[in-house]
């Protein structure tokens, strides 16, 4: 009964704090951590223990998978270099820098334990940063960089943590660490891809949204467990499975299944994510008590944690300088090669393609050239300058993963309670200080957001492509008159009118010309509308493959088609 009350009180607290945070304009994770810290010192308030295995093996795969499903693969691919730099190279540098600090400041800690704690405090949590950024209108590319970093850097940090813990028991070499890292990445990617592909294929055979969503809840663990058993990274496998699922699901899963799944996953992610932040705050008083019980000074941990917070911030700021320089170099390169790519594209399109294997190879080359030209246009359209670099540098908040990973330090680690409290101070200090000041930084540097006029024109152009695809279907006699009998002109006009891509679910059911009891007209209407929606979906996937449209326009059009398809299925049923 007590556990039930604690869970119920936790859910109610999250909802109440979420409502208040929305009114105050404060990111919810920041509010929950602050509220949790305050409640942890109130007598009589329960202090549920933040079990590290529960977070690392139970919550983290779910949250990373849910975030990866909604991440456009196109955006991730275009910025895979900067994301890798932030999520891998910066994590390594932060581990080395803070490891040196901990080794110098804590007597008798040893290099392996120092680097283990450095790995613990190295990964960032992008939840608070992206929540602030979206509310203040940060450009979508900066948000993609932060989200991509948050998806991958947990895996990098946990691999380094595992290596440092192993080094405390046996000697390791730099080449051994590099080999283990490459092995973990390769195996995790392969397992994640396999799980993602099988996931959408199997769920595509189900014809029930409830069953479909139920199966989706176990997918993160289906990727996580075998990767961990193989000595790879379970969280990276869950991320790759989510990316593959999100990319493939429009082709294999029914619209009603994806709409139902999205709603359920948003609710689950909201509760789990924010419960972790609340528990993170509630754990501060027990951590301080355990440090005092060992005869250690909690203020020593606070001072060391604040020093480590300054170190991780300085390292991130220093890393942002060459990162922005590399992205600006990419802009110059894009400006130089895009005209040549456009010339090559026009030449491939204007000359007649040969038949057979040579023709197919030519078509593949044309698609690659079109995609490369679109990537170059993307970099020219959305450059990251010094203003964006400042925001990236100040968005290095740590989160619950830092505290959970610290709890996994071996029991015989010298001064273990002190080190766990240091990790908490780093997480709390970066989350609260940078989180509450990030809005002021964004306003001060005046980062330009995405051009709304261009976004509107891009979406209108995409809808025009989909409309042309639908009109082509209705102009095909093989579709409108499959048995030689032309379709009713009034019914065709109704289908044309209803094939306009909408973004809202109105109550018009498409029966204005045939009557609700005319089964033949109903069946013909449904058949034609399905043909049109299928053509529009294929046109949307083809547009996504070319990369000429912004991912937000593609996602908006995908949502509109899903609503139309789900509405048609309800009408047909």
Explain what you see.
With about 575 residues, the chain is mostly helical. It has 2 domains: about 1-325 and about 375-450, Up-down Bundle (Na+/H+ antiporter like fold), CATH 1.20.1530; about 455-500 and about 520-570, no CATH class. Helix content is about 80%, strand content about 0%. The chain is built from 24 helices and no strands. The chain has helices at about 1-25, 30-40, 50-70, 75-80, 80-105, 110-120, 125-135, 140-165, 175-205, 210-215, 220-230, 235-250, 255-280, 285-295, 300-350, 355-380, 385-395, 400-405, 415-445, 450-475, 475-480, 490-500, 520-545, 550-570. The longest helix has about 55 residues, at about 300-350. The two termini are about 45 Å apart. About 45% of the residues are buried. Mean pLDDT is about 85; it is low at about 505-515.
Structural class: mainly alpha
Topology as a string of helices (H) and strands (E): HHHHHHHHHHHHHHHHHHHHHHHH
Largest sheet: none
User: Helical percent range?
Assistant: over 70%
Distance between the termini: 44 Å
Q: What's the mean pLDDT score?
A: 85
What CATH first level of the largest domain would be assigned?
Mainly Alpha
Helix count from the secondary structure assignment: 24
GO molecular function, one term: potassium:proton antiporter activity
Subcellular location: Cell membrane
InterPro entries: Cation/H_exchanger_CPA1 (IPR018422), Cation/H_exchanger_TM (IPR006153)
Organism: Streptomonospora nanhaiensis
